[in-house]
UniProtKB/TrEMBL annotation:
Family membership noted in the UniProt record: Belongs to the group II decarboxylase family. Sphingosine-1-phosphate lyase subfamily.
Lineage: Bacteria, Bacillati, Actinomycetota, Actinomycetes, Geodermatophilales
Protein name per UniProt: Aminotransferase class V-fold PLP-dependent enzyme
UniProt organism field: Klenkia terrae
Keyword Transferase part of the UniProt annotation: yes
Pfam families: Pyridoxal_deC
Length: 479
């Protein structure tokens, strides 16, 4: 092996990112959150480096970690209510915050229903983040789907009220929902949950560090009946991934998602989160960025992103074949197609023009109504100066997309899939099905519309098994 210098290694690592979507500049409208401020990047990197070897497993050995975490939680509670007894936990991201909220609710339900062998239920609007479904899977809760209004895409309080029962361990609402960027009626749902003696969690992972600066309807821990709230600092807190907060007004709630054991011959283990060893670097970076930006800095960034969103929504009225779904409450926008335009083709056309817009398949609700396929756009402060270019490319892409035939999956594959038992499929059988669908293990197709159309046409359990197979193929090392 040729000797390598540290510079060689870093150059090799950097070269690996050549095919990645850009993390800065505002053209990647999912997955990343760019403040547009070079100072934020430099400060966060330096803070993260200063704590890169610190282990947040034990704050008694590293008291700096306790201070950083306490300051972040205090900042979150100061922004999002909760009262003098309120507490919180720093987690690795929104998914972990949601997992812990469900775990705490399950712990409470079991404690208040001794001897009850039924599975507790998670009352979940269909637009709630998939992390809650993952939590139900991991912690053995039954998901009770709650449909949303077809026009507003908001959950209806009356539907929640009808589905509340003695088995309900937790009700979830979104502020805003990820798929459509709309704000659920938090106060109304929380009041219903409170009257039934059921905890209510607000998923504000995206909106929690935005909404307080935009004068929204009440949605946070100050709302009667809201027992917990999740908010990500690696989204509109503009910190590196991954760092999130799970906040609650009830200290007993936090006990319900922790774990402690002295039942082995090693050191006593006490974990407030799912992880043991926890990286302190992202926490330190979030702390540094928050200290530097401050309330007014976040306010400026939030309003810049919101203004850009309003300009985008207004300009979309002139883009042929697209419509905005729901009423965007913050900086998330969902676009559906009309007049013959398929948004899956639109996503491919925008990719060719240097933008990443996230396709979202159509969704069949419990009552038989269908939410349309959409494109998800996350607007950040870095997008603010690019709205005219985005609108121009959207109009150009729409004109090209409407000329294309609808993406239709192979009917033979769809028919064959309807008779499959996804749980019985082996890895080799999934590989064969993927190869038949044109995903033979090489790079993904340049145009993904046919793939997304296939996923939408398959029975959901089969689609989920094939999607697992796609990721399985991505993570096969070369030798």
């Amino acid at each position: 092996m040729t000797p390598r210098t540290p510079r060689d290694v870093l150059a090799e690592l950097t070269a690996l990112t050549a095919e990645d979507v850009p993390t800065h500049g505002g053209a990647t409208m999912a997955y990343v959150y760019d403040s547009g401020l070079a100072e934020v990047d430099g400060l966060a990197a330096a803070a993260q480096a200063a704590f890169q070897w610190t282990n947040a497993l034990d704050p008694t050995a590293f008291p700096s970690v306790a201070r950083v975490e306490d300051d972040l939680v205090a900042a979150g509670l100061g922004l999002l209510g909760g009262g003098p007894a309120a507490v919180g936990t720093v987690t690795s991201g929104g998914t972990e915050s949601c997992l812990l909220a469900v775990l705490a609710a399950r712990t409470r339900w079991r404690a208040t229903h001794p001897g009850d062998d039924r599975r507790p239920q998670l009352l979940l609007p269909v637009t709630a983040h998939a992390a809650f479904r993952k939590a139900a899977h991991l912690f053995d809760l039954a998901v009770v789907d709650v449909g949303v209004d077809q026009v507003t895409c908001r959950v209806r309080p009356g539907d929640v009220e009808q589905l509340l029962s003695t088995r309900t361990a937790l009700v979830v609402v979104s502020a805003p929902s990820y798929p459509h960027g709309v704000l659920d009626p938090v106060a109304e749902v929380a009041a219903l949950a409170r009257a039934a003696g059921v905890p209510c969690h607000v998923d504000a992972c995206i909106g929690g560090w935005l909404l307080p600066f935009l004068d929204p309807a009440p949605f946070d821990l100050s709302v009667p009946g809201v027992t917990s709230l999740s908010v990500d600092l690696h989204k509109y807190g503009y910190a590196p991934k991954g760092v999130s907060l799970l906040l609650t007004g009830d200290p007993e709630f936090r006990v319900g998602h922790g774990y402690a054991t002295a039942g082995w011959p090693g050191y006593p283990v006490v974990n407030p989160t799912l992880a043991g060893t926890r990286p302190a670097g992202p926490m330190a970076a979030a702390w540094a960025v928050h200290r530097w930006l401050g309330t007014e800095g976040y306010r400026r960034l939030a309003r810049a992103a919101r203004t850009a969103t309003e300009q985008l929504v207004a300009g979309l009225a002139a883009v042929p074949g697209v419509r905005v779904v729901g009423e965007p409450a913050t900086t998330l926008v969902a676009l559906a197609g009309e007049d013959g335009l398929d948004v899956l083709h639109l996503a491919d056309e925008m990719t060719a023009r240097g933008w990443l817009l996230q396709p979202q398949p159509p969704f069949d609700q419990p009552d038989g109504t269908r939410l349309p396929a959409t494109l998800h756009l996350t607007v950040t402060a870095a997008t603010a100066d690019r709205v005219p270019a985005l609108l121009a490319d959207l109009a150009d892409a729409a004109r090209a997309a409407v000329q294309l035939p609808p993406p239709v999956p192979d009917p033979g594959l769809v028919a064959a899939a309807e008779g499959l038992d996804p749980a019985a499929l082996t890895v080799a059988e999934v590989d064969g099905l993927l190869a038949f669908a044109g995903l033979d293990g090489g790079p993904l197709p340049a145009r993904m519309a046919p793939v997304h159309a296939l996923v939408a046409a398959l029975p959901r359990p089969v689609a989920e098994r094939l999607l697992t197979g796609v990721l399985d193929r991505v993570y096969r090392p070369t030798r």
